[in-house]
Write a structure and sequence with these properties.
Shape: globular
Strand content: 25-35%
Oligomer: single chain
Helix content: 25-40%
Number of strands: 8
Largest sheet: 6 strands, mixed
Strand order of the largest sheet: 2-1-3-4-7-8
Number of domains: 1
Order of helices and strands: HHHEEEEEEEE
Radius of gyration: 17 Å
């Protein structure tokens, strides 16, 4: 009897996690962003104008964007980013604007539990789809783009 109860609990848990995944259109947008050639913490792209654009969008994303994370972290905060055939390994979070016009991924590589790179990549959606607008490394930055409110 115990084995049957355990199987039922595992089956219900699997269904619950599967039900937390993004809708098909939302999943397609997420996978399109992940497929672009940018790795947070390792890629640096963009000029001063691109970084200013990113600064303004980052603030807006933290205020009202939709936060996505790995399916096993869904209980923390945000939504599951589901399953994509390609995803840069060090991605920890994805934020997409409510209107779907821009997005940001944050993350970095670790070695022996310590960060060796960290950064963010910013994306803009145009008529031809998503493209990388800027990427910056932030592991050793004295202050992030978004500061704490006092």
């Amino acid at each position: 009897m115990k084995l049957g109860v355990r199987r039922a609990v595992v089956a219900l848990a699997a269904l619950a996690v599967a039900g937390c995944g993004p809708r098909p259109a939302e999943q397609a947008e997420i996978c399109a962003i992940f497929a672009l050639p940018a790795v947070p913490g390792d890629t640096q792209v963009g000029d001063a104008a691109d970084l200013a654009w990113a600064r303004a969008r980052e603030r807006a994303l933290f205020k009202s964007g939709v936060i996505y994370g790995p399916p096993w972290q869904v209980m923390g905060h945000g939504r599951s980013w589901g399953r994509c055939p390609v995803r840069p390994e060090p991605v920890e979070h994805l934020l997409i604007s409510r209107d779907g016009a821009y997005a940001m991924i944050k993350g970095g590589r670790r070695a022996n539990g310590h960060p060796v790179s960290f950064g963010a990549c910013y994306y803009e959606k145009g008529e031809a789809g998503w493209h990388v607008r800027a990427c910056r490394r932030t592991l050793h930055d004295p202050a992030p783009l978004v500061g704490l409110k006092r």
